[in-house]
Amino acid sequence: MTPLEDRLRADLRAESVQIEPGSIPPLRLPASGHPDGKPLRKSPRHWSGWMTAIAAAAAVTTVIAGTFLVGHIVTGSGQPTIGEPPYSGIPPYYAYAVQGNTYSRIINGTQYGDSVIARYVKIRATATGKLVRTVSPPAPYNAFESFAGAANGRTFVLAANRYRYTKAGNEYYKLDQRTALKFITLRITPGGRSQLSALSVPEMLTEAQAPTLALSPDGAELAVAYGGSGKPAVVQVITLATGQMKQWASPPPAATPVLGGPGSWTADGRTLAIGQMVIQPGGIIRRLPTQMRLLDTASPSRSLAAASKLITLQGGAGNFPWPFITPVGTTLIGEIAGRPIRLNATTASGAFGVYSARTGALLRVVARWQQHGRGFILNRARQTVVWSNASGSRLIVEMPRRNISEVGFLTGEKFTPLPHVALAPLLNAINSGGFQTSGGYVGFAW
Amino acid sequence: MDRETDASEAVTAIYQRHALGLTRLAFLMLGDRQTAEDVVQDAFCGLYRAWGRISDHGHALGYVRTSVLNGCRSAHRHSKRAPQPLAVPPTASAEATVLASERQRATITALRRLPPRQREALVLRYFADLSEHETALAMGVSPGTVKSTTSRALAALAHMLREEEL
Q: Which of A4, A7, A8, A174 should we substitute to test contact with B (largest number of B Cβ atoms within 10 Å)?
């Protein structure tokens, strides 16, 4: 092997790792293929228009209500075009983060890099898995802090941050904590085209504030939460069209308010479900007794405590819940850990708890699961609700199944995987990785 | 289990094992992640459609690898018609590009200036670690052609890198 061949081999390998394991989209085979090799006959397309019936779902889903076509599966346009009943009424597009390097350097023949969970954000059609858009942070930004989807199914807001060059000790790049985050709006037209635009927020928000986001069901308002844990806790609702802002705050000591994006708003756009946590010095999160704060955004008070009601979820195992309120606002859905997930544990278990939004009483436990394995697998187990129909009788969840996490419908105790949202390993990576520094479940927006 | 399900499961299993490597290979050929992913998806859809016609399913990986190369050639032709910045992945920010290793960047840039066949030979030999015989099968040429193409490609690469470093 000559030095040139050695160099070529090393550089090809280094270049290729931009494609990270776990970031490959799921295989999308034709729905009714002909494995004997005959050409696929194109199904007649029954374009019946964007179903207005979905408007009903839009009115009652928390973050996104989808618009779907009744017709046959087709691929290539990026538009969701499937009318199978299971897909009716669910969000037409989903967003997820893709890992990637913010930089790489070769020093003495060794490559050094800093891989971040949210180097890019991809938008895909839920029904087909078709890629609609890959969004890169606009220069000089090079990673995403958080993102959230809206209930119109076609609007996403992304917040970009930046790793800066530094020569402090062994560190070459550090996350910029001071510069304002860059907000971007992504809208998908009914024709399936995507449009990016800059979004101005009235107040400068930085990485250090670790803001979490939630778009209102109609995509017109953006809720932002930050602070707490020694600083004032702040929740803002910004009208995107005008920049007008309402703000609620609590002085210290106050818990850090956390918005979960999906699941934080009721369908009427009035109530915000806000998670609570305490971040100790050094970034350690102290788990509170399972609590959620329900903020009445129509309240005249500007005190977060006065304008909201603190609900303690009874019967939970003390795990911090990403806020999720059903669109009608009557129930909260949280995580129940039957057995704490610990390093080197061999068994983990859990379930979803459905609680009264009025009293916090545990109404029922659904989808109990148990997982056997070691270390890494168990440590990555997660269970999260990402979408709900109006009443909460039909959910889309991410939960451990057969020692991996899967995304699918949960109706009662019946789990049905969503075949084109086969991103569970990636979701796990997001949830356990740096993207969670924002404090919210932001890896997966609907 | 019907024939269609068999094919679907078999192709999906191959995809799960080899999609990463094939996507990386296509990415090296094209320099564009999205196109690389699409090429690999199309190749596997082709494998699925052709499943019943493949007599030895043990050769399925070779079949799909050749399809990926064909897809890369096709994508390359399209990119010539509508020029794309091949040397820089469109999803990478300018800063990330600047920060990437100068040496690595020079190698990859030089690689992408090679004719597609020479680039294929180098990527298959030095990234996919295929033998001359396997490379020949994937490219649909003789092993002798692989040898000469690789030799010419290395010479051209060396020349470009020398120019770059002057």
A: A8
- What is the nearest CA distance from B106 to chain A, expressed in angstroms? 9
Inter-residue contact A311 to A289 (CB < 8 Å):
no
Rounded (10°) CA dihedral B2, B8, B9, B11: 140
Q: Which residue of A has its CA nearest to B122?
A: A8
Q: Which residue of A has its CA nearest to B55?
A: A36
**The pLDDT value given to residue A439:** 25
Phi, psi values for residue B67, rounded to 5°? -65, -40
Global confidence as pTM: 0.56
How does the average pLDDT of chain A come out, rounded?
71
What span, in angstroms and rounded, lies between the C-alpha atoms of B122 and A4? 12
DSSP strand E in A297-423: where? 308-312, 331-339, 347-356, 362-372, 384-388, 394-401, 404-411, 414-417
Residue of B34, B101, B162 best to disrupt the A interface, most CBs of A under 10 A: B101
Q: Which residues of A touch B2 (CB under 8 A)?
A: none
> Which residue matches tokens 């809208």?
A187
Nearest to A260 by CA among A40, A84, A62, A65: A62
ipTM, two decimals: 0.85
User: Which string of b and e fits A271-304 if b means at least 16 CB within 10 Å?
Assistant: bbbbbbbbbeeeeeeeebebbbbbbebeeeeeeb
Instruction: Name the residue in chain B with its Cα closest to that of A132.
Output: B34
HSE-up of residue B143 (Cα within 13 Å, Cβ side): 5
A251 pLDDT tier (thresholds 50, 70, 90): very high
Q: Which residue is associated with the tokens 């107040």?
A: A203
- Rounded to an integer, what distance in angstroms lies between the CA atom of residue A69 and that of residue A190? 11
The answer to whether the bond into A80 is cis (omega within 30° of 0) is no
Flag if B44 and A120 touch (Cβ within 8 Å).
no
Please tell me the predicted confidence (pLDDT) of residue B63. Answer: 87
Q: Which residues pair with B91 in a beta bridge?
A: none
C-alpha separations of A403 from A347, A348, A379, B18 in Å: 10, 10, 11, 21
Domains of chain B: 1-88 (1.10.1740), 101-166 (1.10.10.10)
Cβ atoms within 10 A of the Cβ of A60, count? 21
Selected residue of A4, A12, A115, A133 to mutate for chain B interface (largest B Cβ count, 10 A): A12
Report pLDDT for B154: 93
Q: What's the longest Cα–Cα distance across chain B?
A: 63
Strand A256-258 vs strand A245-250: parallel, antiparallel, or unpaired?
Answer: unpaired
The CATH T-level fold of domain A45-441 is: Neuraminidase (2.120.10)
Tokens of A34: 């002909």
How are the residues of chain A apportioned to helix, strand and coil, as percentages rounded to the nearest 5? 10, 40, 50
The mean-pLDDT minimum among A150-154, A209-213, A394-398, B84-88 falls in: B84-88
φ, ψ (nearest 5 deg) of residue B134: -65, -40
- DSSP helix/strand/coil, B155: helix
Coil, strand or helix at A377? helix
